[in-house]
Amino acid sequence: MTLSPHERNLIYGLYHAVHLSRIKGVTAEVTLRSIEQLRTACEPYVKGPGLELRVVRRTLYLNGSPVVQDVENFVFYRHVVDMLRRSWIGILSVTAVPSVTDLQMFLGVVARLSDPNHDPTRSGKLTELLSERGIRSIHVQPPVAGVATLPGERERREAARRTYEDSIAISRELFNGTRMGRSANVKKVKLAVQAIVDGVLNDEASLGGLSALKDFDEYAFTHAVNVCIFCVAIGRRLGLTKAQLYDLGHAALVHDIGMSRIPREILTKGSSLTDDELERMRAHTWLGALSIFELRDFGEIPFQSMIVAYEHHIGPDDSGYPAVVRPRVPSVFSKIVAVAAAFDAATNERSYSKALPADEVLRTFWEDKSLGFDPVIVKALINLLGIYPVGTVVILDTYELALVHAANSDPASVHRPIVRLLSDPDGLWITPPPLIDLAKTNEKGQYERSIIKVTSADRYGIDVSTYFA
Ligand SMILES: [Fe+2]
Fold it and tell me: Nearest-5° angle of CA 402, CA 403, CA 406?
């Protein structure tokens, strides 16, 4: 796994700016150029998921995920960690794109404190220095001695699983409540959406992995939560702000709420619906908009969610349903929900249709323009899941069997995910199955392993969910 371009710009940018501030001074032309580059590198984070660098022992975390150390960035990585440690910084967060002057002052202080000849015990309180100088966009906190401030892998997984299960419980309550005509607990729904957005922003891999768990019996509830997770992760890649992600997450969680007002026998009948039944099924769009209107909270009407419920089946040129009177361009949120919902539906087993392999569904979404999906959104979904989504079972050119564990964070290596090796070339199961990065090359620069085909988990008797539990 390698750094994404944004991560690379940020880590390298920070290193260069501190280094040049130290050797050339903060007013030198070359330093000012590096400061401009660092400001540009901060931008996608500040406008998107936020920017928090954290050092726990000798590991650097960016927004909660460990920054990948590889041969290429090893030296810079070590310098940045040393620089933060010597300046007595445990957490560095940036809340707005800093001005050139703010960065000059910050870098000047950090360059002095992190100088290898400087005694770190005499660092003083950087926090106070920053506030004395009136720097509002950059915040620092000292290291927490001896305590791993980030929970470990197991804890992160458990936190993700709790978020997922709690959200499903709330989604179940919401659907059943609406079916019975009970008013829903709006606050609980909002909290569930917030937990999903925070979960995706902090640890996308763990929460995303859970959406690979398919529960046939609870389709409506898991579908709503899966679509919500996919939408938030897509929205994040499209650069939406946190507030927009909350709105999008809410819209995604309730987009099919109208289904709870459709008789069960129609919902489970599948493709052999009569014209009349089809018409009733299609009414879930505007019934959904009405149900959401009833979810209004102290006069605050969730307009975006109502629009998405109404529009998510309207295709290009006003095809799809409900029929529109005037030409209408669905909102971006509706387009995102349409792609995420179609993907989750196609990859889930239903009473009337088998689950399709995720890679096949993604290829169809990308190639079949008649489906009318927005190509930018489909591309974001492909980048998110990789061409081989999490949970796909693949055969490698070494004849080993592997399970896709996570998409590669580098978009250039989208076809080379991180996999768990399940069996050796002779078909013997490997325990415990190791994680392998398919983007790894040998000393001659050749890939050690490549995917040759996707296969089905059933064929090899693999219960995918056990590898994500
Ligand atoms: Fe729908």
Answer: 125
Domain boundary, last residue among 384, 410, 437: 384
Where in 206-313 does DSSP place strands (E)? none
Q: Domain range holding 233?
A: 153-384
**What pLDDT is attached to residue 146?**
35
Question: Measured between alpha carbons, how far is 73 from 445 in angstroms, rounded to an integer?
Answer: 17
Contact (Cβ atoms closer than 8 angstroms) between residue 111 and residue 21: yes
Q: Residues 225, 263: one domain?
A: yes
The full length of the chain comes to 469
Q: Is residue 204 domain-shared with residue 353, that is, in the same domain?
A: yes
Q: How far is the CA of 244 from the centre of ligand 1 (A)?
A: 21
Distance 259 CA to ligand 1 centre (A): 8
Q: What is the mean pLDDT of residues 445-460?
A: 81
Ligand 1 mean position to 310 CA, how many Å? Answer: 9
* Dihedral sign (CA 320, 211, 353, 392): positive
Question: Closest by alpha carbon to 343, among 331, 333, 358, 330?
Answer: 358
| Residue 457 Cα to ligand 1 middle (Å) | 28
Residues with CB under 5 A from ligand 1 (ion): 256
Q: What is the mean pLDDT of residues 178-202?
A: 83
pLDDT tens for residues 386-406? 777 778 888 888 888 999 888
pLDDT at res. 145: 45
Token digits of residue 411: 């978009």
